[in-house]
Write a structure and sequence with these properties.
Distance between the termini: 5 Å
Helix content: 10-25%
Bound molecules: zinc ion
Number of helices: 8
Radius of gyration: 18 Å
Largest sheet: 7 strands, mixed
CATH class: Alpha Beta
Oligomer: single chain
Strand order of the largest sheet: 10-7-6-5-4-1-18
Strand content: 25-35%
CATH topology: Metallo-beta-lactamase, Chain A
Length: 262
């Protein structure tokens, strides 16, 4: 499986880097060119032809930084003659998306246009804990511990598997399920705040480097690559330093623009 990282931060921003300005974009991972995992960043990073290759969008939860690329993506592909793109998530997420975004007030209802019989988007309600066949992959959403209904995903093909945490605070089910998968090759785990912001992490239900280290003990897979992502740009330097200080050789900070083969 090839994962192209369109965005992997907890907000948008531009940072001063040692090699010039460094873009930070909200989360969007393009999987095998056809499945988008979260839709924080889509159209600003993909030529139209590549947007048109996307057939499924998996949403971890309804928070704006994970859906905000979806409206303009829908606008770009609407009426292109292709079959509808499936937006798959928990029923709470799908219901919220239709009520609050595609409600003909904030944005047109791309679930009914250009025509109700041939819309731009269709929805698929996912039950947590059930495995679905999506674009030739096995996708299992697992409930995680966030401020709103939210899932992480375990994605598998015949050869390998990876875990995508979505936004979460301390949790169990996702790690327990993933640790049993022999072909698990990589885990993408959020780490939003530095250790100095532990209280903010607790009330907003996100992880810090020290909490991530606790969660990695539950995952208990030192053999796989761990990619920290969803860093808040304003705290990126400090979070990165604290992650390095954990001294875990398999732990990396995910970078935008890279393609990871799992
Ligand atoms: Zn988020
Ligand atoms: Zn969130």
């Amino acid at each position: 499986m090839d994962l192209r990282i369109l965005g992997c931060h907890g907000s948008d921003g531009v940072l001063d880097g040692s090699h010039g300005a460094q873009d930070c974009n909200t989360c969007g991972f393009l999987l095998n060119g056809t499945v988008l995992v979260d839709a924080g960043t889509v159209a600003t990073k993909l030529p139209l032809k590549e947007q048109q290759q996307i057939r499924h969008i998996l949403l971890s939860h309804l928070h704006f930084d994970h859906i905000k690329g979806l409206p303009t993506f829908a606008d770009n592909i609407s009426g292109d003659g292709a079959s509808p793109v499936t937006v798959a998530s928990l029923s709470d997420v799908i219901t919220g998306l239709k009520a609050h975004i595609f409600n003909a007030a904030v944005y047109p209802d791309f679930f009914t246009i250009p025509t109700p019989n041939s819309p731009t988007l269709v929805s698929q309600m996912l039950d947590a804990g059930t495995t679905y066949g999506i674009s030739g992959l096995e996708v299992t959403p697992i409930l995680v511990n966030h401020t709103v209904p939210a899932v992480g995903f375990i994605v598998q093909d015949a050869a390998s598997a990876f875990l995508y945490s979505g936004d979460t605070y301390l949790t169990d089910a996702l790690w327990l399920k993933a640790r049993q998968i022999p072909q698990l090759k990589a885990a993408f785990i959020e780490c939003s705040y530095p250790n100095t912001h532990m209280e903010l992490a607790r009330i907003s239900k996100h992880l810090t480097p020290s909490l991530l280290a606790q969660e990695l003990k539950k995952l208990a897979r030192p053999d796989i690559a761990i990619y920290a992502y969803h860093l808040k740009p304003a705290h990126k330097t400090q979070i990165t330093r604290e992650l390095k200080d954990l001294g875990l050789p398999n732990l990396m900070v995910l970078t935008e623009g890279q393609t990871i083969t799992v």
